[in-house]
Amino acid sequence: MPSKRHNVGMTKPGTAAKPLSAPQKALMKLGLVRDIDLALHLPLRYEDETSWNSLAQARDGETVQFLATVQSAEITFKPRRQLVVQVKEILPSKQGHVEDSTSQIEDLGGTCTLRFFNFYPSMQKSLATGQKIRLRGEIKGGMLGKTMMHPSVHAYSDQLPTTLTPIYPTTAGLAQSYLKRAVLTALDRCIRFGAFQETIPQEYQAPHMWPLIKAVQFLHEPTAGVSVVQLEDKTHPAWQRLKAEELLAQQISQLRAKRERQNLSAPDLSGETYSKSPQSVALANKATAKSPLDNASLTNELLEILPFQLTNAQRRVVSEISKDISKRTPMYRLLQGDVGSGKTVVAALAATQCIDSGYQCVLMAPTEILAEQHFKKLVDWLEPLLAKKNLCVAWLSGSQKRKDRQQMLAITQSGEAALVIGTHAVIQEQVKFQSLGLVLIDEQHRFGVAQRLALKAKLQDQEPHLLMMSATPIPRTLAMSYYADLDVSTLDELPPGRTPVITKVISDQRRDEVVTRIKAQISLGRQVYWVCPLIEESEVLDLANATQTHQLLGESLPGINVGLLHSKMPIADKKEVMQQFTDGKMGVLVSTTVIEVGVDVPNASLMVIEHAERFGLSQLHQLRGRVGRGAAASACVLMYSLGEHGRLGETARERLKAMAETQDGFEIARRDLDIRGPGEFLGARQSGAAMLRFADLSTDQEWLAWAQDLAPKMLDSYPLQAQQHMGRWLGNKLEYLKA
């Protein structure tokens, strides 16, 4: 890799920094800081400007490129301010000069009207009467002749480009022309300074693999005649090389992160009473034996008081976690399971093993409602057991009164609080632990990398064990790629007693039928959720809102207590509403997605989701999981609106179809991956910046397998090249893997 590093807005030492221009700020917004970032900012699509078309023979909707003379240009104000330009086609000649089309063939109709709603003085100058120009755009036919709206206008020349014209992903304030110059300039510097030197040893390169420099140069300036389809669907050999490079960088970085953690020291959370003799370990590993945790005092007591038996899946996962946290290297494990699979009790058993070992455990949840659900459940289970040891459970949230918060901070720092539960408040600077051994993060996709790193930093001399939980199951291909650096435990079995939920997809024109169904459920003593996407009216989106729906349902259901819950309510009001609904004093709860996770009301048997077409697939599945938690038959109504176009979009249709066809969270996750792609599905590993830009896990599994096989060989035999490879592709994203 080159020793020189070129940054946007970089100044020489000792000189005053110049303010960044608007385009420079836009480049930084896109993350294009280094030359290598710009050189790897590849085109989104291409335009073929390598051939001429005949304006006279062009059909409606066809994209054409031709030379023309401006016959007139004027600014008009009807129906709005616009620049209207009349042009006449000029035919390029093989002899290198041009001729007026009408001088050769009579009545070619080679005239066109150009319309610009956004224009500048420089554009007006280039389109003055008599000017000769090159135009490219889509033709629209009509009674008044051919028209082009905002065509591309180029300086006059009958010499066409010999390469396809790249169109780059951009942002406001960054013109294509500026971005293209910046990209090509950076590319030239990268090549001159060796930024694209080969890092993959020749013996490991796949057959027919393009050289890296050739692939990058080709994608910025593809030669005429190449298949635009191959370029845009990324099946061209040049794209294949970049996909392979990117996947290899990802696999190397994740494997390195995993190895680095194995060199860190973590607390031994094997439990005070668990014997580590070879005989007990051998017994624990037998399929017929109990979990090694069964000998741990707190854990054993918890298992005895639970009002249910663990499923086989729960026992298997508890054993996996128990063995991990008994080691002196930090556990880094993802616990995934479908809605209602019992992740909370698994987390509780991990916490008891941690506490038995003399360490504290912290559980962080993304919302106060979810954190409080955990708090109540775990207090019921653990508080009586902890009291025998003069320990307790602490609660931390942003809405606490100062006096209560100070008390919780004090017992956390003293170690009296063996388990600390809360929202992101648990990672604030003033929160001090005496001996933090285990970090539990629920709904881990809702937290950013910085928050998770801050929580891990609470343990100074050792690395805490980390268990992240997710109710959005991760498809195998995604786990192989995005989570290759951690271990995954899967709860693939639902506890007995879960009632299957019938899912109905209906139009909002049948709203009255839904209200009738609600009345029937209430008469049977059941309760109902009604979920809306917005809190209040929006001028941007014409969607049903929670406040208006609450009012309308209250009018339609006289005598029934209809509650309202949303994120903008004061905490005390939220708690009061949830308590009424949990206690059965409220028949209908109108809510936003604040009830998406964690809310557990077994008596609720009907879920209505308004504007279901606007929700993501995993979000719909989470919401549906709020019903069917008791013995009563339950249903989820996905109510959609066709909108002004009178039809559902393809993506929305696929989502609703998937919800109607299956309740399997793993199958839903697979379909969600197909619909949205890995970047959106994962929230880019919750970092806000995609870790894979070019590779597609649904089509590039061969390259993924190749990268997984090669990554350990690179780290073991070619560590310098491995480091260069990661730096080229990931830059500062390497920090994400530590969280």
At a glance:
The protein has 739 residues and is of the alpha/beta class. The chain contains 25 helices and 22 strands.
Q: What can you see in these coordinates?
A:
Helix 19 (571-582) links the parallel strand 19 and strand 20. 40% of the residues are buried. The protein is α/β, with parallel strands linked by helices and 739 residues long. The chain has a seven-stranded parallel beta sheet, sandwiched between helices. Strands 17-22-21-18-20-19 form a six-stranded parallel beta sheet, with helices on both faces. Strands 2-3-5-7-6 form a five-stranded mixed beta barrel. The radius of gyration is 31 Å and the shape is globular. The model is unreliable at 1-6, 95-107, 273-296, 445-449 and 683-690 (pLDDT under 50). The chain contains 25 helices and 22 strands. Among the domains are: 51-160, Beta Barrel (OB fold (Dihydrolipoamide Acetyltransferase, E2P)), CATH 2.40.50; 278-491, Rossmann fold (3-Layer(aba) Sandwich), CATH 3.40.50.300; 501-662, P-loop containing nucleotide triphosphate hydrolases (Rossmann fold).
